[in-house]
Predict the structure of DUF3243 domain-containing protein.
Amino acid sequence: MSVLDNFRDWKEFLGDRVEQAKQAGMESDTLQNVAYQIGGYLSEQVDPKNDQERLLKQLWDAGDPQQQQALASLMVKLVQNPENINRGS
């Protein structure tokens, strides 16, 4: 089972990676930029595996680069709070 199959697993996986990057000394702006690049890659290369990922892809595809940057930033903020990881699907 892939972390992409279950949105809660995906959020937990992303949260772990964000925490590792912070502990390695990655600046917040750099972290946001990496999240933006990953979002673009996922949108172009990975088929959504669940409803939440389909929604994120649709939002990403509908946005301009500034809006995509904001969405990436929100995903990082979402997974930095453990309460958000365990909520919902």
Summary: The first helix runs from residue 7 to 23.
